[in-house]
Amino acid sequence: MKLKLHTKIFIAIALGIATGYFLKDITPVYIAPFGQIFMRLLKLLVIPIVFTSITLGVYSIGDTKHLGTISSKAFIYFISTGFIATTIGLILVNLIKPGVGSSLSTVGLEKAVKETPSITELFVTIAPQNIFESLSNGEILPVIIFAMLLGTALIKIGEKAKPVVAFFDSMSDAVMQITEWIISLTPIGVFALSANIVATMGLSSLVSVVSYFFTVVLGLVIHAFIVLPIVLSVFGGYSPVAMFRNLLPALAIALPTASSAAALPVTIECLTKKVGVPSKIASFIVSLGTTIDMNGTALYQGVAVMFIAQVYGIHLDLVQQGIIVVTAFLASAGAAAVPGAGLVTMVIILNAVGVPIEGLSLILPVDRLLDSCRTPVNLWSNSIATVVVAKAEGEPLVPHLEGTDEDPFVGISKEEIEMLEKKLERVH
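RE: above sequence
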């Protein structure tokens, strides 16, 4: 029987803890290097994913002008709710402080602490000066800025942009293939990292992870059951209870699979037939939002970065936490279509604020469980976006009768269908 990746990861964590406990003398010498190699491979993915994904993401948003104001209103929703979700996570992690007092608080401190830049210095340094230098040095923020400028420029030059877009499209697919290969090595990396932590720090080092886990879950609960229902009621004029009931089939798929993409067809059907969102709005926003609207992921990443910083005893001030908010949204949006993207996007944010990525090994034991918690939040937010945009567009919600065979994509042009199919291929 072929085991699923998350099952292999759970087994690897258990074996790693046992190995680190019983073979703590040989683990740092013979096993730990495999974890270091895995972390280096994750670093390898960061710049290519950010550069290609954000460039194509900006271009694809501009390429949907035939949908009128739908895309702009959806994007405003994505940005607003994403920033709110990340901010909630940062507030909770600052109040609860799950990483403070950990036995790892002094490990790597001497290499991790960086002088906090002033706001003026921050704005100066994020401006791209030499894009090739930024790419080679792994400077994330200048690369993001340049990618957004490039994507916008490609929209402006029209037909002439097609060869460049085709190149980035192929490059993105190639990077995703490499990512799949590296993510398939996750069980080996997790085994080595878990073993090394237990061997060098003892089992007590894992205790604080429980507090981190509940901090993330609390943030997700607040966002999903308080913030988003208020948004739905106020800006969508729709009952959150009715919305939840109508989306249960899609949420039931998202929870165990931890994949919004896997639940995408069912989500569209629930929204068009049960909620009554017009097909042209539901199909477009759900497809686009599957790669951009990642509220749960953004919240989780903000908490995770602060937790790791607290474990290492690194103080991140308001400026740096502001960088986390912005980078968490951009990273989760830019690399959302990549399988196992949580690890990769976390590296992006850790690099942006100068926190050692070795701290990822602390959160890996509970990452798969949190993945199943944050994915339904992503889908929930994405679905609410369709109702909010429909209301803003003045479109009535007309549910279809049960048992009808109406195609949820009815009313969409051939060009729109081709665009949706391309996005779905990229998600998968």
